[in-house]
Amino acid sequence: MPPKKPEPARPRAEPRCPHCSARDAEVISLFGTQAMTLQYRCRKCATVFEAIKYD
Ligand SMILES: [Zn+2]
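Above are the sequence and the zinc ion SMILES. Below is the predicted complex in structure-token form.
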């Protein structure tokens, strides 16, 4: 992946935790395992998951 100018993390909506369905997650990484994903950690159950970054 070529280094590009990083863009500010502005997720369009709070992602839903796949474990407890809470919409209370914080971004822990701007880069997931794929280019279009962000890594989040649920504040309720501490599950780390990825969600698609829009636009
Ligand atoms: Zn959760």
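The mean pLDDT is 83.
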